TrEMBL record:
<dbReference type="InterPro" id="IPR004785">
    <property type="entry name" value="RpiB"/>
</dbReference>
<dbReference type="InterPro" id="IPR036569">
    <property type="entry name" value="RpiB_LacA_LacB_sf"/>
</dbReference>
<dbReference type="GO" id="GO:0009052">
    <property type="term" value="P:pentose-phosphate shunt, non-oxidative branch"/>
</dbReference>
<feature type="binding site">
    <location>
        <position position="109"/>
    </location>
    <ligand>
        <name>D-ribulose 5-phosphate</name>
    </ligand>
</feature>
<feature type="binding site">
    <location>
        <begin position="8"/>
        <end position="9"/>
    </location>
    <ligand>
        <name>D-ribulose 5-phosphate</name>
    </ligand>
</feature>
<feature type="binding site">
    <location>
        <begin position="66"/>
        <end position="70"/>
    </location>
    <ligand>
        <name>D-ribulose 5-phosphate</name>
    </ligand>
</feature>
<feature type="binding site">
    <location>
        <position position="136"/>
    </location>
    <ligand>
        <name>D-ribulose 5-phosphate</name>
    </ligand>
</feature>
<dbReference type="GO" id="GO:0004751">
    <property type="term" value="F:ribose-5-phosphate isomerase activity"/>
</dbReference>
<dbReference type="Pfam" id="PF02502">
    <property type="entry name" value="LacAB_rpiB"/>
</dbReference>
<feature type="active site" description="Proton donor">
    <location>
        <position position="98"/>
    </location>
</feature>
<feature type="binding site">
    <location>
        <position position="99"/>
    </location>
    <ligand>
        <name>D-ribulose 5-phosphate</name>
    </ligand>
</feature>
<comment type="similarity">
    <text>Belongs to the LacAB/RpiB family.</text>
</comment>
<keyword id="KW-0413">Isomerase</keyword>
<dbReference type="InterPro" id="IPR003500">
    <property type="entry name" value="RpiB_LacA_LacB"/>
</dbReference>
<feature type="binding site">
    <location>
        <position position="132"/>
    </location>
    <ligand>
        <name>D-ribulose 5-phosphate</name>
    </ligand>
</feature>
<feature type="active site" description="Proton acceptor">
    <location>
        <position position="65"/>
    </location>
</feature>
<dbReference type="GO" id="GO:0019316">
    <property type="term" value="P:D-allose catabolic process"/>
</dbReference>
Length: 144
């Protein structure tokens, strides 16, 4: 699967871990920046990843910022994106199963390496269930 990843300065180190995990699990990963811990504006990178996913260049995206909130809000401004902030691994599962989320957002300041890996495992193990959830996703798409 082709995955685009991005962050703000707070998520740069975790992106390296995520990229390594994705590669080890057979995914193709593109880091869309930033590449240093120099202060940047998270909407710039959230929009870059979200636009690439919405355009079909990547199947999914992963975003990090200090809390995960800013990148989630920013990514969800792009039509066709359903970005979900996964504060716990179970949120990642449900975001995929019930919301057909296509961008995973995580906190770089309130999550540790083990939780990041567990969240990734949950995200990639889950599949959209369709059914009653399809109707709801269609409403989300209709209003974006």
């Amino acid at each position: 699967m082709k995955i685009a990843i991005g962050s703000d300065h707070a998520g740069v180190e975790f992106k390296k871990e995520i990229a390594a995990w994705l590669a080890a699990h057979g995914h193709e990963c593109t880091d869309m920046g930033p590449y240093t811990e120099e202060s940047v504006d998270y909407p710039d990178y959230a929009h870059k990843v979200a636009r690439a996913v919405a355009a079909g260049e990547y199947e999914q995206g992963i975003l990090l910022c200090g809390t995960g909130l800013g990148v989630s809000i920013s990514a969800n401004k792009v039509p066709g994106i359903r970005a979900a902030l996964a504060c716990r691994p179970e949120f990642a599962t449900l975001a995929r199963q019930h919301n057909n989320a296509n961008v995973l957002c995580m906190s770089a300041r309130f999550t540790d390496s083990a939780a990041i890996v567990t969240t990734l495992e949950h995200w990639f193990a889950a599949e959209f269930e369709g059914g009653r959830h399809q109707r709801r996703v269609e409403k989300i798409e209709q209003w974006s």
